[in-house]
């Protein structure tokens, strides 16, 4: 493959002067952890019976989340590097462009795994025992696009585990409360629907390269209708969480913010990339505040 500047992807001139730390930050998209941290705090809050967990527990949860994300994202990029090279939108990512090697990506993945396991160990025996379970969907969700157009629900499932894992980290048991379970349904629907919207960016490339996605299969209009149904189910789930956790003024304001943000995700004049980030992120953050502010 030759890029538009005439250089091969593995050209040494492309790697010159590129710091490994800077490449790692861009490769792992650490800023997108904003999707999960508020959800983790909400899960931890519910696991602590509506109280703020200790700073130590919260820090360990954050380290575990960042480590797990780095692990999952790194393998996502490794598995997808050939597909990324065929897509003009993703061809300049670190692996397909040659700015990073597979070995470097594996080192980053293992570093993330190490941080995740160390944090789980700090959170106690139960968390360490259960630690392999979230890694399975994190490792495999990016492979779903090769087999099924329902792949969007794979990443939704991964993120839906976040508040439940944080619940266990603070509660130290698996007896989930009803609000915690229903909140995870909201997270699943919010992320799955948002990923369908995001996939609109790649509809032509997906069709050309045989990548499965709902936009590629159904077309843009029907895919957005499907995403809207998923988001409506998510809103209804969050409304139920609101009532179960007290329905205070702060929670109602947060609920309104979620509703407005999700509506904006279907405004055609807003670029799809903006609809996904930051608008979808706003919906997730506001949604996480609903159980936290239940009595406020």
Structure, described:
- Helix content is 71%, strand content 0%.
- By secondary structure, it is mostly helical.
- The chain has a single domain, classed as Orthogonal Bundle (Tetracycline Repressor, domain 2).
- α3 (37-47) packs antiparallel against α4, α4 packs parallel to α8 (132-140) and α14 (249-264) runs antiparallel to α15.
- The radius of gyration is 20 Å and the shape is globular.
Number of DSSP helices? 15
Order of helices and strands: HHHHHHHHHHHHHHH
CATH top level label: Mainly Alpha
Helix proportion: over 70%
Structural class: mainly alpha
Full CATH superfamily name: UbiA prenyltransferase
CATH architecture: Orthogonal Bundle
Taking the sheet with the most strands, its summary is: none
Keywords:
296 residues; mainly alpha; Tetracycline Repressor, domain 2; disordered N terminus
Task: Describe the structure in brief.
Helix content is 71%, strand content 0%. By secondary structure, it is an all-alpha fold.
Layout of SSEs?
Layout: H1 12-15, H2 20-28, H3 37-47, H4 55-86, H5 94-97, H6 102-122, H7 125-130, H8 132-140, H9 152-171, H10 178-198, H11 203-209, H12 214-218, H13 220-244, H14 249-264, H15 272-292
Helix pairs in contact: 3-4, 3-9, 3-10, 3-15, 4-6, 4-8, 8-9, 9-10, 10-13, 10-15, 13-14, 14-15
